[in-house]
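Summary for the funding panel

The consortium committed to producing paired sequence-structure records for every protein in the target list. Below we show the first two records in order, beginning with the earlier of the two.
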Amino acid sequence: TLHYEEGGAASPDVAIRARVLEANSAAAKFFADNLANEEALPGREFLQSRGFDKAAADLFGVGWAPKGWTGLTDHLKKLGFTEDELITAALASKKDKGCYDKFRGRLIWPIRDSTSQVIGFGARKLFDDDQGPKYLNTSDTLVYHKSSVLYGIDLAKKSIAKQQQVVVVEGYTDVMACHLAGITTAVATCGTAFGDDHIRILNRMLSAEKDTPA
């Protein structure tokens, strides 16, 4: 029996979480589209140097963050997102001069959860004048918690359950290389050590096949 409560509107956190996921999805498409631009040549050359062609980039949704300060912010605001929503999603930051993109002039990997929703991003530095870390990841948000995030889990979950194994590698390109080589159980942590939360997630997947009726 279904029981309906009055005031069917979603709770504030649920509504905000949904907007963060929508913003992430739109950002992932923006980054992927930008990988074909002339400015993104260093990103494409980096992928090629690692043995990844366009098909591989498309499979993993690899994209490019423009070097300008507000490319993504301006694009998402045109789609109806507010500055506060972009800051909540950790896609933008704000200082006295206004709102600006968190990821700029970097190769971008969308990070998806086990349901294939984009929950965050990983960005690799390619330019010498970039003063940031080699890899810049999304900071914790309502949908992204680095201690429990595994890159590649969306692609690996079925193989992990079926083969009863998981291969944990160091980074995004390692996951790409493994999957393209047929090791489809590969995942990677995102800017943090492999910890208890990661183990719990994988244990659930490893036991999923055992619990499935024959």
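The next record, for a separate protein in the list, is shown here:
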Amino acid sequence: MQTYHVKLESPIHQSYKCNRAADSLDIDVAKKSVHEIKVCADIDSDFSIGLILGSSGSGKTTLAKKMFGNDCFKTSLNETLPIIDQFPNNFDYENCAEILSGIGLTSVPCWIRPVFTLSNGQKARAEAALLMTKNDLTIIDEWTSVVDRTVAKVMSHCIQKYSRKNNKKIILLSCHYDVVEWLNPDWIIDCNTQTFLDRRL
């Protein structure tokens, strides 16, 4: 077990309107602008799927950067190229089609158009598909926020199936608690409750 500790602080702007807004509350705004997360977790033991949950602003992204480095969310997605041309060279057409279809990007025209022409939801699926093929450890932030819940379910099933079949470690961040059922993660860090649940036991 290792303890991960992050502290989020937001400066309070001093202006007439900001002061009026702060004065209208029955709370100490200065205290509310500081948020700390402290959680003990075992992420070094073998796993396939890890999940960091929490409401928006709960510190999921900051915690992930603390755990895995500031560059953990960098992607090599090239928006000027079609997604199907961005998979590693050892992925043949059938491999690419299987991953894209499995993650809910079933429209073939979306595969062959430049990524910048896709909708936000389509782009999110394309990026998740690419991330899954690039690294042994993949970290995907808020992958279901710009898709409906049916697509989120399909994406979740595809990600966890791909991870376990190909011996990949994938960590996902989400504000949606319904993904727990679909992903069946090996461990969960909940930033709202600052708890770690090891489901490998």
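Regarding this second record: The first helix runs from residue 16 to 23. The longest strand covers residues 2-9.
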